[in-house]
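Title: Comparing notes on inverse folding

I've been comparing how different people in this forum approach sequence design from structure. To keep things fair, I'm posting one structure and asking everyone to reply with a full sequence. Here's the target:
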């Protein structure tokens, strides 16, 4: 009986995590969670700066006393805890999403992980820059929010908040597949469109390297060494498994008869069955 109870408990746990990953934790949810965790981390850093800074002055002749170590540990925790919480949500969100149907094509949305981490780190600035003074008796810091200082503090807080929102809203890179080929948008590099006719049959194959998948193209070799021309797809920054992207590009490069159906739910379902079989 105990074995049956253990099996049921494991099955229930796997089912709850699976349902959570597929239904609840979407890319939008992860971005929202990153912003909320970042704000909490910034507020925690402000509390550490104001409430614990005075501990560092317990002994002016020993700068590395217990107060210093506690202050440093609290500073690290104000950043580490939000990052750990976001990492846990990302772990729960596995497996990644799939290609989605959008405007007559298939789209691989951008991963929320890199901008989420960047936003959490930027929001740590909420703990700095506030008007304050040091109490001469206790050596503790006190906020100065009188007069125009409150307006200055509000204006300062808007800077990291706005920067974090911009990081989370800009969702590039994005990969789009349509009947004519695939297109990659990135923040730094301009969009690149590759017609299906240029994709070498059987490519891409192998694993992505450094988060990028090399797609070999049917173009004349480069240089004296005859290096193959490739197009890099930043699969490490997409919210889709690299294997799914590789199968999709390779499949439509080899099967022109299926290209006209790209962008329909039925074709997406067929492509997913193909990917599951490889």
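Reply #1:
Here's my take.
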């Amino acid at each position: 009986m105990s074995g049956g109870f253990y099996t049921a408990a494991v099955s229930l746990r796997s089912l709850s995590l699976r349902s959570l990953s597929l239904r609840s934790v979407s890319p939008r949810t992860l971005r929202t969670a990153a912003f909320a965790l970042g704000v909490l981390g910034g507020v925690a850093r402000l509390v550490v700066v104001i409430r614990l800074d005075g501990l560092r002055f317990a002994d002016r002749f020993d700068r590395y006393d217990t107060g210093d170590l506690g202050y440093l540990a609290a500073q690290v925790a104000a950043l580490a805890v939000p990052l750990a919480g976001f990492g846990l949500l990302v772990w729960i969100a596995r497996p990644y999403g799939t290609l989605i149907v959008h405007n007559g094509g298939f789209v691989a949305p951008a991963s929320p992980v890199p901008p989420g981490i960047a936003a959490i780190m930027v929001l740590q600035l909420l703990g700095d820059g506030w008007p304050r003074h040091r109490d001469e008796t206790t050596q503790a810091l006190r906020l100065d929010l009188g007069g125009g200082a409150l307006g200055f503090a509000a204006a300062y807080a808007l800077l990291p908040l706005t920067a974090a929102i911009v990081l989370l809203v800009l969702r590039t890179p994005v990969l789009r597949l349509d009947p004519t080929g695939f297109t990659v948008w990135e923040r730094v590099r301009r969009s690149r469109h590759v017609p299906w006719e240029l994709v070498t049959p059987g490519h891409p194959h192998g694993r992505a390297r450094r988060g990028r998948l090399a797609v070999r193209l049917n173009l004349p070799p480069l240089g004296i060494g005859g290096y193959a021309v490739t197009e890099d797809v930043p699969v490490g920054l997409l919210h889709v498994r690299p294997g799914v992207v590789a199968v999709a590009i390779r499949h439509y490069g080899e099967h022109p008869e299926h290209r006209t159906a790209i962008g329909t739910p039925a074709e997406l379902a067929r492509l997913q069955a193909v990917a599951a079989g490889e």
